[in-house]
Specification:
The protein is mainly β. It contains one helix and 28 strands.
Length: 394
Amino acid sequence: MKYRKILAVASCAGLMGIMTIAQTVPAQAASWKLDGSSYVYVNDDGTYYKGWIHTTDNKYYYMDLSTGHMTTGWKQINNKYYYFKSNGEMATGWQQVDGKYYYLNTTEADYGAMIYNSWIHIGSDYYYVKGDGSMVTGWRSIENNWYYFKSDGRCAFGWQQIDGTWYYLNKSTGVMLTGWQQIDNHYYYLNTDGKMLTGWLTDSNGNKYYMNPSVGDMSTGWKQIEGTWYSFNGVGYMQTGWQNLNGVYYYLDPSTGAMYAGTTATIDGKQYSFDSSGAYTGGTTTPSAGAPVSGSAGSPSGGSGSSSSTSSPSGSSSSTSGVVTGSPTGGTSSGSSAPGTSSAGSSTPIVTGPSNSSTGSSSSSSGSSSNYYNTKKPSSNGTLPEFSTTGPTG
């Protein structure tokens, strides 16, 4: 009996010793660890954390709901796409992935979610991302309007020379304009595909115009073209027949508009003579009063009466290879052809004359009804748990 009591006491003492030792071993601290080639976040109880992690340095990570492994690359979460860098950090703002640029939301709503099929407004610049989220460059049709996006994705405005051809994109909306446009007090004609036309144009009523080959603006007054003088009235129509300028008579060929100069010609069965400047000098008869019409100021001998716009394009010009039909007379139009394409036709396109009262250069009051995003970054969206960690790689 004595020995049994001693054994019992010893056994009890040994058990107490084991319990004391166990109480001195601390619980495992939560931390990042490698599991194979992937990082995991191990909870205090040794289990892997799953879902979103918001770190103290305001970064976000996503741990796979099945494996607990840290996500990298694209991930669809609750029907939204997110991109996680190689170190697991959720990306925001512009990100280049496989040669394409994507924009991950920087606003509190949908923070980090990929934006798609939408305009993006950053500072004074506008961008557009497609249905797959990739940034648009080049020509793009959006809500039945054409826009041009530069190589860095910025939407272009105003005059733009693209592949050697001039286009005009509304200064406010970026919409590509077509038809007659009054820009900085000068008229231009933009084809259905947006190309600025130069050279001779003819409208549906047979009126002829001449667009400056260098800058594209419509000619008015006297204009020397390939060594021959022509006259255009205030709305650009090429004049023909008798012209009375400050009491001096000139005669412009009824078919071509070319001014007679240094010659004697038979007109309506009568002989008329013209000096080298084109002025009528005499003949078998005098032009009947009221037959010639008053011309515009300036004279062929006084130089070109046509001025060019200081803000219009310069340099190479666009050819007049397209036939233009159906343009509105109000001076504004929205193109139906893809930019950079032309319909086949004669070298003298059929156009509609410019409206005398046209003042606008816009075919749309706004570029898109889509919402714009900005780049103001919040300190936190306040919905995800915050962890006392700075991420797996510090």
